[in-house]
Amino acid sequence: MTRTWILRFLIVAFIWFAISRLTEVESLVRAFLQARWEWILPALAVQALYFIVTAAMYQSAFATVGVRSRSPHLLPILLASVAVNVATTGAGFGGAALFVDDSARRGESPGRTAVGVLLALIADLTAFMIILVPGVVVLFVFHTLRAYEVVAAAMLVALVGALGSVMLVGLWRPRWIHFLLSMLQKIINRIGARFGRPELVSPAWVTRSAEEFAQATFAIAAHPLRLVRTVGLALGAHLLDLVSLYTVALAFRARLGLGPLVAGYAMAIVFWNVSITPQGIGVVEGVMTLVYTSLGFPPEQATLIALGFRGLTLWLPMAVGFAFLRRLRSFAVEVETRTAAWSVRGAALLTAAMGVVNVLSAVLPALPQRLVVLERFSPLSVRHGAHAAAALAGFALLLLALGLWRRKRMAWALSLGVLAVSVVSHLLKGLDYEEAGLAALLGAWLVMLRWRFQARSDPPSVHRGLAVVAAAFLFALTYGTAGFYLLDRHFRIDFDLWAAVRQTVLMFTAFRNPGLEPITGFGRNFADSIYLIAAVTVGFALFALLRPVLLRRPASPFDHERARVIVERYGRSSFARLVLFPDKQYYFSLGGSMVSYTIRGRAALALGDPIGPEPDAPETIRGFQAYCQGNDWLPGFYQTLPDYLGHYEAAGFQAMHIGDEGSVILTDFSLEGKAGKSLRGAVNRLARLGHQAVLHEPPLADTLLEELRVVSDQWLTMMHGREKGFSLGWFEDDYIRHSHVMAVHAADGTITAFANIVSEYQRDEITIDLMRRRPTAEGGTMDLLFVHLLEWAKAQGYASFSLGLSPLAGVGLRSEDPIVERALHYLYEHVNQFYNFKGLHAFKEKFRPQWSPRYLVYPGAANLPAVALAVIRADSGDQFVWDYVKDFWARRTAN
Q1: Residue 801 predicted with pLDDT over 60
Q2: What is d(CA 131, CA 138) in angstroms, rounded to the nearest whole number?
Q3: Which residues pair with residue 695 across a beta bridge?
Q4: Which residue has the higher pLDDT, 291 or 474?
Q5: How far apart are CA 355 and CA 641, in angstroms?
Q6: What are the b/e assignments for 158-191, b being 16+ CB within 10 Å?
Q7: Distance (Å, rounded) from C-alpha 566 to C-alpha 855?
Q8: Contact call for residues 112 and 216 (beta carbons, < 8 A)
Q9: In 761-813, which ranges are E strands?
């Protein structure tokens, strides 16, 4: 609500400024109509580059204080801050709140971010001092320096000194910062008390902010080179602004010398910062005009230069920034996500292309004139080896490109090594500096993209892979050396010990056999066996080095207890209880939310939506997505509600309708009337036969538990299956013992069917998990069971009863639905050999539920098969194919 009102204030303020400065806007339009556009367009390009470098400067400042950020993410925030600064304050601090708010949303320290913004401002003004001094000197030499210009420059120097003093106080006297913040807290709370809110700022905020401020200043002192880099980027941005001003002057047919250029720019920036009007509106334009008029330029031309420069540096960025204010967060995330995705994919594709270049270059002959030069320095054997090395490097790059596509850190490191080998091999085999240059450029680009490749490999698998490579090499060395030395009669070469060692190493590492000529079939088989050992070793090593992280242990008791607290506080779905089962792992967000997931193959499959505070859902989704990318997993969400579809879409996911969940409104449920006739008949018939439904309170007795187990086992045998998991529970003693169980007892007291009841916590609804019966149960037993379940839930005061998911029901009914959903609808209508989808839906339809769609959320169409397979494996187990084959064969045999 607070952010909404702030945004509304900014909209009103922006409109007010636009109206109040309408005359200036009209003058600006007329000025641009007189400009030479062949110079305006380059000025626009330079100004765009200015904002890119400035965003990099902020990123460097944040890195100095220990706040993680990315320049593409900061760029729209920087532009939006221009609009905020115009609408709030002339000092330039209003936009700082945007950086702090964005940082807090990403889980970074707001206090450190505030220091980072302060550091960026100090670096910007410090770098500007390098330009200000020459500008003042020029005005002094030309006898046009005015007293108000000296005063404004002195004020700016004093401002820089004051800001620097605040930083030094945080470093040397951190307690003073705590005192100043305490005074600020008291002032704010006194103001808030007049409006009935005396605790706007808490003492905890003062303590935390003071500590974070002190830690940030210590980080600056510990990394002076980062500070120098920040100032350097700020200076580069100012130089770009000077180029922009010079280009604008050319657009209005004025040639600014170096002195006038620096003087006019210096005074413009000074009054931009110290003027009492927001961003120096009106003042900067007047001062620039006076400066250039005093230096001999015609007043009309000086005015056009000032208006044109301000149009490019303030008005246009302000308009763009204002457009970003509403969609700032989604746009910034989208820019960063798309930039990261395309840079990674581009690097992977170029790596594969470089692999093809390597292979082609290795098989093509070298240029004769280059060989003449190369023969002076490189012997023939080295050139032959370089050809083989280039070919092997090419095949390796083709394999590693897939790992780069998956953002694998190990693939990135190996690719750099292979590219280094490529550079050397291209130069040695034929002085192919073109291919070597391409490999070097690609390696440099990969180094620049190093932060994009953070997906880990499975550490035990990496260790095992390296151990296997070492063991295989030692075995092959021993095996090959002994073989060549003892079996040399099978070859044309008489191997001594060193020759046997050399031959084995070359065949194992470079797949080469220089001079090797087997004369018997046994000799050829022996040589091929070394190649086979090498190929299997390399293949296994790449598989192990690029393997996703595997989870070998269940969630810790601490994580499980943390998840239980979150579920009890925020759970509101029919499977909220199931996320606490031991087959789940947990991801926790900084905002107090949790995602329950399991790993199947490369897919991290979450059960339902994130559980936690609703405003934290978008950040939790993106956080889980980043967590999965870091472990080389494909994130997916199974059986999500419609509520968060917009958040998933904003994070780059796609959603597929997989069925409807039925929910019975208990106030409307009744056996009376025509609608309840079929259920009423089944219930009455079984009642006459002596059947009754009984609710068993936890904890259940051992004898009852054993009888329920017998029913469960008979049901599994009847279904030709075994216990499932993930989105369903399973018969486990402790779980069933502590559940409410509704059981149907026959006339002789034998239990014929049962279902255990589970809570949905914060939702005024209840549901069941296991639902099982004996094969010999009377027809209508399940109707009786559910009728009594619904009546009991209604008596307990629940509003609704969830019947769970009806898979594929309602999917793909419309012609405009995606083709995948229409294909699922065909399965629903025509395929019932493995699962009776229509029969299950018809049974649930008896109770007249309201249907709500459920979705499978997945990261792009290309990854849908992997996520869908993970769903089947998670629900039905890794042996599901064998189970379905057995079930199909049993049904066919029975028929």
Answers
A1: yes
A2: 11
A3: 742
A4: 291
A5: 45
A6: ebbeebeebbebbbeebeebbeebeeebeeeeee
A7: 23
A8: yes
A9: 765-773, 800-807
Distance, CA of 170 to CA of 176 (rounded, Å) = 8
**Who contacts 824 (Cβ-Cβ below 8 Å, separation ≥6)?**
658, 808, 811, 812
The alpha helices in 721-768, defined as continuous H runs, are: 733-737
pLDDT band with cut points at 50, 70 and 90 for residue 849: very high
**Phi and psi for 692 in degrees, rounded to 5?**
-150, 150
Average pLDDT over residues 772-777: 91
For residue 566, what pLDDT is reported? Answer: 92
- Quick check: 177 and 210 in contact, CB under 8 A? yes
pLDDT value, residue 588: 92
Where is average pLDDT lowest: 225-234, 343-352, 371-380, 556-565?
371-380
C-alpha 144 chain-centroid distance: 56
Element (H, E) at 412: helix 409-430
Write out pLDDT tens, residues 162-201. Answer: 777 777 766 667 676 667 767 766 766 666 666 555 565 5
For the chain, percent of residues with pLDDT exceeding 90: 18
CA 117 to each of CA 60, 367, 581: distance values in angstroms, whole numbers, following the listed order: 11, 57, 45
Q: What gap in Å lies between CA 258 and CA 617, rounded to an integer?
A: 54
CA-nearest of 361, 290, 42, 20 to 146 is 290
Check if the beta carbon of residue 822 is closer than 8 Å to that of residue 812.
yes
User: Chain-wide mean pLDDT for the chain?
Assistant: 78
User: What count of other Cβ atoms lies within 10 Å of the Cβ of residue 615?
Assistant: 9
Task: Give yes or no for a contact between 653 and 858, defined as CB atoms under 8 angstroms apart.
Answer: yes
Strand order in the sheet with 692-696: 585-588, 594-600, 603-607, 634-640, 850-858, 654-665, 800-807, 765-773, 751-759, 740-745, 692-696
Distance CA 331, CA 340 (A): 14
Residue 365 gets which letter from DSSP? P
Phi, then psi, of 94 in degrees rounded to 5? -60, -40
Tokens of 450: 């190093």
Comparison of pLDDT for 384 and 791, the residue scoring more: 791
In degrees, to the nearest 5, what angle opens at C-alpha 110 toward C-alphas 105 and 115? 140
Distance CA(320)–CA(497), nearest Å, equals 75
